[in-house]
TrEMBL record:
Keyword DNA-binding (UniProt): yes
Keyword RNA-binding: no
A Pfam entry, by short name: UTRA
Superkingdom of source: Bacteria
Family annotation (SUPFAM superfamilies): Chorismate lyase-like, Winged helix' DNA-binding domain
Keyword terms of this UniProt record: DNA-binding, Transcription, Transcription regulation
Span of domain HTH gntR-type: 5-73
CDD domains hit by this protein: WHTH_GntR
Protein name: GntR family transcriptional regulator
InterPro entries hit by this protein: Bact_HTH_transcr_reg (IPR050679), Chorismate_lyase_/UTRA_dom_sf (IPR028978), Tscrpt_reg_HTH_GntR (IPR000524), UTRA (IPR011663), WH-like_DNA-bd_sf (IPR036388), WH_DNA-bd_sf (IPR036390)
Coiled-coil region: none
Amino acid sequence: MEYKVPKYLQIKQDIIKAIKSGDLRPGDKVDSESVLKKKYNVSTITVRKAFNDLINEDYLIGVQGVGTFVTKKQMNRKLTSISFSDELLQQGYKIDMQVDKIEEIVNESIAEKLMIPHTQSIVCVRRIRLANNEPIAYQISYMDSSLISIEQVQAIYKNKSFYKTLAEYDIVPVWANENYSVKAVNDSQIAKLMNIKKNTDTFFVKRSTVDEAGKIIEYAETYFNKDWYSVTVEVKM
């Protein structure tokens, strides 16, 4: 005997399929109840059941008087890995990175954070982190130029990963210290690259990364889009 899929489940499965294939992207408005009623030849109750399930499962979000939209799934950081890319991959995201700028600078404040002489030049790598083709973070990494040169760090264009690039020169981080706060993006260029309005609040993370010998090998500052990012901390009693 052939099993007939309930209409509400068919609507639900079709919407999930469209989201996973990319036909429906985060923030897209889905068809209205009236459109789906005609398309599937069903009642309002059937469409609402499908919508309710999808909203409860965080695929959709309903905005009263406006419509129903595909949610922006948050990247939930569990603080178990030094590599941001690894955490995104573990959660099923398609990841990418775009380099904004690579430059060599002298900065007394950053030098202090790296615990190097104030006059020592610093390699600065600015980049956008993407998840499912959406910009979710803007990262700025600073390193002592005596550890890696501005020519060597160009390999990031090929590797699409800062830490893979460091590994090519036997620079291996083993632990990191991170400080979290809320900070508005007041740089119009950074806001544009993050696809947010200037002065929008973000999660701001200051991070010092250390090698096995206890030397600070990187100081980084990252703006995380708050619509895409959350942190989970597990505490044992």
